[in-house]
């Protein structure tokens, strides 16, 4: 595997590398500002800033941006991190701020928030040192978007109809419309969007017996149709006395359907079968987040509240009909999932010990309630109710955590942030398999940001992380499509880990920028598939695991090579992992671990400043999914490539046409189901190859 040599880097070694940045520090000048086209701006004389680079809207004019998101995506060497579902509102898990403040809400992430901010309201974009901020959880480069309302109402819209050449309905209603306004002290925005998706593929699946003999062929076709309709908005007011009020919310609805048709021929005893699998979901969700910051004593007090609810009813059916007229077989699984989260948090920031101290306390209550029914067709083909113990239950969590975060400059070019805290949680599960348990979990981090030289920044971080459980993993469930069943496991506990990170950022002037991040994670109680004491399997905990890798964002500009207008962006992530299999006791990769994620974009803006053209390429590779009785792997043939051409002024609109999947990438799925995996005895195996043709998209963007 690509990263096998990284296994020789133990956690203490990576920790030492992260901390050594401070010990090797040498005096350095303040970082020059670099534009999106590589132009340098002089820093103000006599100042030392934690700002690495500053960009104005004019720096992005060549890209014809309509929103803050359009500009953020063009910042050299930077990629938006949308968050990984961190617990509560405590530690920041994104790398984007608006006016120096975290984005309110949870589903209301940086992409959604930036997309609602029109170009006219953006003053500048700043790349700053995360450890210099009074916000726990940030290190390395962080993007701060500075905005100010123009005082008038502006709007933007986007439509992106899409067509596929093979077996998929046209995608006609993907788009969004947004408006924004405000005044000297207020800013507000509102957006209505539909994230529409029409996907599908078709091809043949081959089934082999334990000896590798072909026993069945299946001609299959699948379609996945979804419309995610979202109404979201935010409101901010800054009072004359410096108090700040933020409000953000959204209402969302999902309409989803999945259909797979399979014409099957058994070659052992020739028999034709028609199998139909269908799954539908109709979900609704709501969330509201607000915060209020005001002067209190020697510091600033910030009060934060969040409330979210969702309801997701879904139905799955599988029906197999036989060519000889015998009774059909199949099953139906109905599940209604309701969940909610309520959070109250307080943060008090004050100057202390030559820096800033933040004291925070947070309380949260979460619940998940599932009602499920399983029915299986009998010998006459009639659906009959079938018990599924542990599938209809409720899980509740009450949690309180608190901590202190301290930030200060150790030198003009070295920033320190330290945090320490603990959390208490009680998790309760109803029903016959339910338990009520309590946990104390310490957490905290140390991070350093070092300006090692002109255009060179190094950031190191060591953190004790408490993971978030998916409450649905506690309960029993079935997968009718792949004929899988998981039992209920009330013993599931939250994972914990030691995370070490080292980030290197290099400004290349007119040639671009490089940002590299290496990490090593030592995990306790990793969540994976385990055997149950009474038989069967479920989601559970394995004692320990490791994950490590290297991520990078690279921007290369042609300006420094003598011609203007060409830009190449590459983002890559290489990961490896190790866990001891609970059945075989041998080392393997984490189930489904993302090994490779590679994305490249090439763009050229022509001298007329109206036309642009370019291409995109991506490729991903994943480790196998491992269960007690099977090993499966989803993958693709190498690479997805596309070409585009863009006109930035078609009667004031930006229009882009693209064609994707030029390399005719195909979806692959391979699975071996074992009679006894410990003994290596296979029952059967499946090999699937499906194609989905080329994708033609027309994007239209405008402002009003």
Low-confidence stretches: 1-48
Shape label: globular
Structural class of the secondary structure composition?
mainly beta
Report the strand count: 37
Report what the structure shows.
Among the domains are: 189-197 and 215-325, no CATH class; 558-704, no CATH class. Helices cover 3% and strands 62% of the residues. It contains three helices and 37 strands. The strands form four sheets. It has a 22-stranded antiparallel beta barrel. It has a four-stranded mixed β-sheet with strand order 3-5-6-4. A two-stranded antiparallel ribbon has the order 1-2. The longest helix has 13 residues, at 11-23. The protein is globular.
List keywords for this structure.
704 residues; mainly beta; four-stranded mixed beta sheet; 3 helices; 62% strand; disordered N terminus
Put the structure in a nutshell:
The chain has 704 residues and is mainly β. It is built from three helices and 37 strands. A hairpin with a 5-residue loop joins strand 1 and strand 2.
């Amino acid at each position: 595997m690509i990263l096998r040599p990284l296994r020789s880097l133990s956690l203490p070694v990576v920790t030492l590398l992260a901390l050594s940045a401070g010990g090797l520090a040498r005096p350095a000048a303040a970082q020059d500002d670099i534009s999106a086209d590589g132009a340098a701006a002089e820093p103000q004389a006599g100042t030392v800033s934690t700002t690495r680079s500053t960009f104005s809207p004019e720096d992005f004019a060549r890209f014809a941006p309509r929103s803050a998101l359009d500009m953020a995506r063009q910042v050299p060497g930077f990629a938006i991190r949308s968050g990984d579902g961190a617990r509560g509102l405590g530690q920041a898990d994104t790398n984007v701020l608006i006016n120096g403040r975290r984005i309110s809400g949870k589903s209301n992430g940086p992409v959604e928030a930036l997309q609602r901010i029109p170009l006219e309201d953006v003053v500048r974009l700043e790349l700053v040192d995360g450890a210099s901020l009074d916000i726990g959880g940030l290190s390395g480069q962080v993007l701060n978007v500075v905005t100010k309302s123009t005082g008038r109402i502006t709007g933007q819209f986007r439509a992106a109809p899409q067509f596929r050449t093979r077996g998929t309905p046209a995608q006609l209603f993907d788009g969004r419309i947004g408006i924004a306004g405000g005044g000297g002290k207020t800013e507000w925005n509102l957006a209505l969007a539909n994230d529409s998706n029409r996907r599908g593929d078709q091809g043949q699946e081959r089934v082999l017996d334990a000896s590798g003999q072909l026993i069945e062929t299946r001609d299959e076709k699948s379609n996945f149709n979804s419309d995610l309709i979202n109404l979201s908005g935010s409101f901010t007011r800054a009072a004359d006395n410096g108090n700040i009020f933020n409000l953000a919310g959204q209402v969302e609805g999902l309409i989803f359907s999945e259909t797979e048709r399979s014409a099957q021929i058994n070659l052992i005893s020739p028999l034709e079968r028609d199998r139909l699998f269908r799954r539908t979901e109709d979900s609704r969700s709501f969330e509201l987040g607000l915060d209020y910051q005001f002067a209190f004593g020697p510091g600033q007090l910030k009060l934060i509240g969040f409330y979210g609810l969702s309801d997701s009813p879904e139905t799955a059916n599988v029906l197999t009909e036989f060519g000889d007229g015998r009774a059909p077989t199949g099953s139906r699984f109905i599940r209604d999932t309701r969940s909610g989260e309520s959070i109250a948090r307080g943060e008090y920031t004050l100057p202390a010990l030559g820096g800033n101290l933040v004291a925070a306390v947070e309380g949260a209550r979460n619940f998940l309630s599932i009602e499920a029914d399983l029915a299986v067709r009998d010998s006459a083909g009639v659906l009959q109710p079938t018990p599924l113990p542990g599938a209809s239950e409720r899980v509740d969590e009450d949690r309180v955590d608190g901590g202190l975060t301290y930030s200060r400059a150790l030198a003009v070019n070295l920033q320190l942030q330290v945090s320490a805290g603990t959390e208490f949680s009680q998790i309760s599960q109803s029903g016959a398999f339910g338990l009520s348990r309590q946990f104390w979990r310490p957490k905290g981090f140390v991070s350093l940001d070092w300006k090692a030289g002109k255009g060179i920044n190094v950031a190191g971080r060591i953190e004790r992380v408490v993971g978030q459980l998916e409450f649905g993993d506690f309960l029993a469930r079935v997968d009718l499509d792949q004929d899988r069943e998981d039992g209920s496991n009330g013993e599931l506990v939250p994972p914990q880990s030691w995370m070490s990170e080292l980030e290197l950022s290099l400004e290349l002037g007119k040639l671009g920028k490089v940002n590299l991040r290496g990490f090593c994670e030592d995990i306790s109680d990793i969540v994976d598939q385990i055997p149950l004491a009474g038989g069967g399997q479920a989601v559970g905990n394995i004692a320990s695991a490791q994950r490590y890798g290297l991520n990078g964002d690279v921007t290369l500009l042609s300006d420094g090579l003598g011609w203007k207008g060409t830009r190449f962006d590459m983002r890559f992530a290489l990961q490896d992992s190790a866990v001891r299999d609970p059945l075989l006791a041998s080392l393997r990769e984490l189930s489904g671990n993302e090994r490779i994620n590679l994305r490249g974009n090439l763009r050229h803006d022509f001298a007329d400043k109206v036309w642009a053209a370019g291409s995109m390429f991506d490729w991903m590779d994943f480790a196998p999914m491992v269960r007690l009785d099977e090993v499966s792997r989803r993958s693709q043939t190498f690479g997805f490539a596309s070409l585009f051409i863009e006109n930035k002024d078609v009667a004031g609109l930006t229009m882009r046409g693209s064609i994707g999947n030029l390399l005719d990438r195909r979806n692959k799925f391979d699975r071996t189901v074992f009679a006894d995996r410990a003994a290596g005895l296979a029952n059967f195996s499946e090999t699937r190859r499906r194609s989905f043709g080329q994708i033609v998209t027309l994007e239209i963007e405008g402002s009003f």
